[in-house]
Amino acid sequence: MVVALWDGHRLEKRAAINLGEIAKENFVFCVAKFCKPFMDHVQKFFQKSKITPNVSSNAVSLTGILSLVAEKKGITILPDCVKNFNRRGIHFHDISDMRDKIPTEAVWSKDMKIPPLEHFHNCMRNVFSTGNNKKDLHYDL
Questions:
Q1: CB of 2 closer than 8 Å to CB of 84
Q2: Of 23, 28, 111, 131, which is most buried with the most CB atoms under 10 A?
Q3: Would you list the domain boundaries of the chain?
Q4: Architecture in CATH for domain 2-95
């Protein structure tokens, strides 16, 4: 997990930040109905740390969330894959005490037989049927 900070934020120069250091910040999060599983996961971290976040703004998209952060409306917590997303005025920093994996689920109809989905099935089989990944997979075709 990473925290997104705006240019000039007091923690901008830090390599890693812990949840306690951002506890009193204003937060910008996704509207719950659009990202409920992710927000449930983030909320568990706050509860475990006995932190009640002050949510100052919400948005329906990543672009909207990062725009609000860039406008200094608050900071946000996102999956670390967003580090690859370049946005002027935004800095991503690891959250040192939020290391748990976020479960990812994909659901589709068993009757759906289209080439892109078949390709996806093959990729999933290759990725999750070998090595250490095997234990993380429940694959029912």
A1: no
A2: 28
A3: 2-95, 105-141
A4: 3-Layer(aba) Sandwich (3.40)
Residue with tokens 């996961």: 41
Question: For the chain, which ranges sit under pLDDT 50?
Answer: 134-135, 141
Tell me how many degrees the CA angle 71-35-14 measures, rounded to the nearest 5. Answer: 45
d(CA 30, CA 126): 32
Q: Closest Cα to residue 139, out of 124, 119, 118?
A: 124
pLDDT at 132: 56
| pTM more than 0.90 | no
Predicted local distance difference test score (pLDDT) of residue 104: 67
Q: What tokens does 68 get?
A: 């609000």
